[in-house]
Amino acid sequence: MLSQLRTAHKVVGVKQSKKAIRDGAATAVYIALDAERRVVGPIYELCQQTDTPIEEITTMVELGDAVGIDVGAAVVAVLRA
Asked: Which pLDDT belongs to residue 2?
């Protein structure tokens, strides 16, 4: 599942993911469990409000690696094709 993130149409980061979720463009959201709760808390709430599926990933480093960046990622939103 994570291996598909590298080639998926996506946005990385809290701000971009929030916008995608609000706009109805996100089909799924991946959240790192070790990200600060104050940072990702609003993403959880927004996903619940919009019925956007959430997948939790153990670490920010693991999520960053999955999307092909050299730093950790707190949130990744997969976009509609």
From this structure: 81
